[in-house]
Design goal:
Elements (H helix, E strand, L loop, with lengths): L2 E5 L9 H7 L4 E6 L9 H6 L4 H8 L1 H8 L2 E2 L10 H11 L31 E2 L4 H6 L10 H7 L3 E2 L7
Parallel strand pairs: 1-2, 2-3, 4-5
Helix pairs in contact: 1-3
Length: about 170
Amino acid sequence: MPSVLFVFTLTTKTLSAHLYYVLAPHATIDIASPNGANPPVDEGSVKMFENDPESLKFLANETIKGQAHQCQEAPRMFDLPVDPVNIKLANEFYRPGKIVSAVCHGVAALVGVTDTQGKSIFAGKNVTGFSNAEEEILSKTKDVPFSTEDRIISLGGKYTKADKPF
């Protein structure tokens, strides 16, 4: 069974329930966070998804709570785009053809990753992530160090978004 590592941020801005339940039947999942155990949960996200059964199930899941309690340390989400350890590890996965992926703002963690010729992994590829419109709707443009959408485009990615936000 393949292994997956979820890296949780300490910025309390994410809730990753859906992806967990898509992957859990097919992979061993571990989690990590910048300062180790018990990464915080964004209360705004909890409120936004309070009627979402998958998100509620995720927050109540005893296995996940146990993993969160024993989290290994990992670099911060906002530091990941320039963190040399993150970039080195992602390069070591991407270059030999292993899957390297992210959702939402997590795509920002991969902006420093390159192929064997030093070209961005986004160059020429269809990519999506948190859009400028979604940042504006949530009034978060001032809270993020850069626009994920704009950075993907600047790295040569073909940014794709849904017809409607979220």
